[in-house]
Amino acid sequence: MKSRTGLGARLLAAFLVIAGLPALAGFFGWFELRDVTQAQQQLYDRSIPVLSDMRRFTEESSAIITVAPELAAVDDEAARRDRAAYLGARVAALSDHLSRFQAEHGGGSGGELTRAVVAMEAGIAELDRLVKQRLSLVQARREGLDRALGATSALLNMADTLVANAEMSTAAVISNLYDDDTGSAQHLATLDKLIEVDLFELGLMFELRSRTAEIGLLFNRIAGLSDAAGLVPIRATLGERTEIVARRVAAIRDPGRAAQAQTLLGTILSLSDPAGPGGLLGLTEGILELDGRIESAQAALRVSADGLHVAVTDLASRVQAEAQRAGAASLEVIRATRLRSAGAAGLALLLSLAVLWFYVRGNISRRLDNLSDMMTRLAAGQLDMRVAPRGNDEIAGMERAVEVFRRQAIANRTLEEARRRNEEELARHRNALQELVAEKTEALRGEVEAHAVARQKAEAADRAKSEFLAMMSHEIRTPMNGVLGMLRTLSAEGLPDAQLEQLRAARASGESLLTILNDILSYSKTELSGAHLERVVFSVAEVMQVIVTLLDPGAREKGIVLWLDLPEDAPAAVMGDMAKLRQILFNLVSNAVKFTEEGEVVLRLRVRAAGAGRVTLILEVSDTGKGISAQARQRIFEAFEQEDGLTARRYGGTGLGLAICRKFAEVMGGALSVESTPHVGSVFTFMADFELADPALLAESVPEWTPDRAGRSLHALIVEDHSVNQMVARSYLERMGHTAVCVDSGEDALDLLKRERFDLVLMDVNLPGLSGTDATRRLRGLPEGQDLPVIGISAHVQEEEVAQQLDAGMDCFVAKPVSPERLAAAIAQVTGGQRRGVFLSPRSVSLPMGGARDGLGAMLADLGPEQTAAAIRLYLDGVGEEARALAAAVDAEDAAGVAKVAHRMKGAAGNFSLPGLSAGLRALEEAARAGDAGAMRGAMAALPAEIAAARATLLRAADGLADQSKVAVNT
After folding, report:
1. Beta partners for 676?
2. Global pTM value
3. Burial class, 161, CB count within 10 angstroms (exposed 0-12 / middle 13-18 / buried 19+)
4. What pLDDT shows up at residue 168?
5. What are all long-range contacts of 7-16, with beta carbons under 8 Å and residues at least 24 apart?
6. Percentage helix, strand, coil for the chain under 3-state DSSP, each rounded to 5
7. Structure confidence at residue 478 (pLDDT)
8. 507 with 487: CB under 8 angstroms?
9. Cβ-proximal residues to 186 (8 Å cutoff; 6+ apart), any chain
10. What parts of the chain have a pLDDT lower than 50?
């Protein structure tokens, strides 16, 4: 204990001596350093806020300089306002910082800063004004370019049409030259005309087309110019091209097109005029000038920012100089204090050396050296040497502490090894998890892409389905014209009453088929662009009675009972869409009869008040048929869907009827629902509101048409490429007391009009070669055709299509299938001086009757054996020659010729229901219109087999026509 106390006391005395002198010197130096510290604190309190304000000035100016180019580069008004507002906010913040700085540090300390901030604010305002002007000019140029390109495109289309017309005219003259090889004077005159007029005009129109295309390219180049030097060649080239186009437009001989071309040329000239107020070249020069001014404004803004930076740097330099002066004074005080401390330290050193030499060296340093060596070994990781304390003083305590440290180091090494092993295991698990996440992410990405592709394919298939429905319903309209026309003709041939009754049934079926075609077209139009509601006054009870009357024979054949349940309070007349309601009820009742094998089918009406002048009609169709499973009750209302594949194979059908019903119900503002139990039956319910109407407004039934002999016999020209349609139209006109001549192309019609006088022209719109529309335009250009009445005939009955035909020069329009009533009304209108009448095909009041007939059977029932045999002979006589012409056109890769012949052969094959041949010709026509030579050869390779099969089918059918003709005569 004495040893420990003596060591401590001696060491304490030595330390007091060693530390006393420096402590005393430090005590005196503290008073001096206190003043230095206060001065440094004052300098800090004054300098740091100034430097902070300098930093804010720099940040705000940097933000302004960074965003200013974005304001200069914006291309829309919203972006300009956003960038201008942002820059304004930054300038305002900069002004606020400057105001606070001047208030805290004196008004005279920020004069340069104030001028720099004011200059930046003015520069931003000027830049915003210039950008706003440029946006206005860019918008004006964009609108001008749209107008210029629209006019150029329209003029280019007109030039294409004029080139095509000139080519056709030249081809016609060359053909005449080949036909006339006598060398006569007329032959030579025609050759002179070809060289001097037609070929010269063709060259002019070719040049008009090429120069117009060049003008469009020059307009497109204007928007991409980046300097004013690029405008010079464009201005010169544009002026040269517009002069050439102006001369070529002046050479157009068609007055209508010449006027239209002059209008388009005027638009192009006004937009290409360098001195004009809206000229594209002037607008572009203004934009390029503004771009230069904007660049100058940005440069001025950068100069203002540099001035702000210089002012900030100058102020920071002054603050730094002041801090340096204060620091120098503080260093002098510190230097003196340090000298005094050094003297005290030297004296303490001498005393310390004496203590160390006389005491520490012998009793402490050796033990400490040994202890230091031990600790060095421990630090090097040599933990196997144990430390043994000696004595009971402080050094012995340190030795014991080192031993404890050694043991803790051994424990820490063990823990470190365990931790390292755990980290390695954790890293392996983390890598494995990352690989798993990457695999799952890649798989999910593939699934998302597959779903996107599947969705696109489904959407494309749905559009193709709707377009196919519209195309097929339209394609059947043309042969329907011949069917209904021949039925109307036969009704006045003095047939027996039994045959007249059969003829009326056939005519009702044909008109009903036309109604179904209209419904299919309505469905496809609903899919593509929505359906429209038609409002007429009708009797609900009469509609239901007609449906039951038509479908009752089919129900009796199956041994089931068809009931009609009408309440006593059924309204006498309502206003609504009768056609859609009739179609809904017919589809529902016919389905009920088809799917019911025994029992009954009931068509029931229930009435419920719906407010003043309105009534809710609830129509139910119940049956005792096979029923519908719960899984299929919603699916059956989709297009082309049935309950299952077995139902489709057993009962047939397309799965379109209920889809049409659901669409029509939605258009009428009603609802269609179904309740069904498998093997028990189904109940379909349609409910909608109707307006009550006056029964006196009910339309009377239309009597059979009987021809009225015209007061003046007209000589008509029928332009129709279909032989059956020619027969129908001629029959109608002859029954009215007129005479007619038929041609099958627009070219033949124009040629015949020059040689023969006619009082009337019936013009089919869709003709091979020159269309009826173009033929009418050319007819109006002939002296003998300017006042000649022209009646257009087509199955294309959309409003814009009808308007296009009337605008082309047709006096009125009659929709296919042509009825004698509408044809007579059209003739009366045009001969009476009226124009632009439209006679569309009305929806029939009859409904389709059950039963399927093949195409040849339908023709036989409509035309009779003799006329059917004549049609077959006419077709078989010409199909071989047309097939050879088609093969020659395919070998020559003449796409236009292939499309023309294939279209004509497809229309003829459609009259005899030859689906294989029609499909092959349709594929060949589509390949020709697409210009795919490989597809044309592939389709042509399969065509001879289809033609042979069609020929065999028609020959077998013709063998039995003689016996059928005898039966028809004896009946």
Report:
1. 682
2. 0.32
3. middle
4. 81
5. 7/363, 7/393, 7/394, 8/394, 10/359, 11/359, 14/351, 14/352, 14/355, 14/359
6. 75, 10, 20
7. 57
8. yes
9. 180
10. 1-6, 107-108, 470, 529, 652, 701-702, 843-855, 857-858, 861-863, 962-971
Backbone angles phi, psi at 615, to 5 degrees: -145, 145
DSSP code, position 625: S
- How far is the C-alpha of 908 from the C-alpha of 922, rounded, in Å? 12
Strand partners, 687: 618, 671
The b-or-e profile of 481-501 (16+ CB within 10 A means b, else e) is bbbbbbbbbbbeeeeeeebee
Rg (CA), the chain: 51
Q: Which amino acid is at 891?
A: D
Strand 790-794 relative to strand 812-815: parallel, antiparallel, unpaired? Answer: parallel
pLDDT of residue 270: 78
Place of tokens 């016996």: 963
Instruction: For residues 209 and 248, give the distance between their C-alpha atoms in angstroms, rounded to a whole number.
Output: 9
Pairing of strands 600-609, 614-623: antiparallel
User: Roughly what angle, to the nearest 10 degrees, separates helices 497-529 and 855-863?
Assistant: 130
Query: Which residue(s) pair with 689 in the sheet?
Result: 616
CB contact set of 152 (below 8 Å; sequence gap of 6+): 212, 215, 216, 219, 264, 268
Q: What tokens appear for 393 in the block? A: 């003083």
In the DSSP assignment, the letter for residue 568 is T
Query: Residue 712, SS3?
Result: coil
In this structure, the strands spanning 681-692 and 671-677 are: antiparallel
pLDDT in the model for residue 923: 83
What are the tens digits of pLDDT across the range 620-672? 999 998 888 777 767 777 766 565 555 555 554 555 677 788 888 888 889 99
User: Which pLDDT score is estimated for 616?
Assistant: 94
- Helices and strands (DSSP H and E) totals, the chain: 27, 13
| Amino acid code (one letter) for 343 | G
**φ, ψ (nearest 5 deg) of residue 202:** -60, -40
Token pair listed for 885: 């012409």
Rounded distance between C-alpha atoms, residue 896 and residue 769, angstroms: 9
The reported pLDDT for the residue numbered 247 is 84
Q: Do 819 and 484 meet the contact criterion of CB atoms below 8 Å apart? A: yes
Which H/E stretch holds residue 671?
strand 671-677
At CB < 8 A and 24+ separation, what contacts does 732-737 make?
Answer: 732/485, 732/488, 732/489, 732/818, 732/820, 732/823, 732/824, 733/823, 735/489, 735/492, 735/707, 735/820, 736/707, 736/708, 736/709, 736/710, 736/820, 736/824, 736/827, 737/707, 737/709, 737/710, 737/713
User: Residue 817, preceding bond cis, omega within 30 degrees?
Assistant: yes
Give me the amino acid identity at 347.
L
Any residues with CB less than 8 A from the CB of 902 and at least 6 apart, and which?
886, 921, 922, 924, 925, 928
Q: At what angle do helices 865-891 and 961-970 cross, to 10 degrees?
A: 150
279 closest CA partner among 226, 234, 311, 323: 234
Tokens read off for 323: 């801090």
Cα 882 from Cα 835, distance rounded (Å): 39
Nearest-10 Cα torsion for 824, 830, 836, 837: -20
Tracing tokens 């469009």 back to the chain, one arrives at 216
Residue 736 is encoded by which pair of tokens?
Answer: 């009215």
End-to-end CA distance of the chain: 154
Q: Is 574 in contact with 835 (CB distance < 8 Å)?
A: no
- 591-627 per-position pLDDT tens digit: 888 888 899 999 999 999 888 889 999 999 999 988 8
> What residues contact 679, with CB distance under 8 A and at least 6 apart?
626, 627
pLDDT at 862: 41
The whole-angstrom separation of Cα 146 and Cα 223 is 11
The two tokens of residue 545 are 């009675």
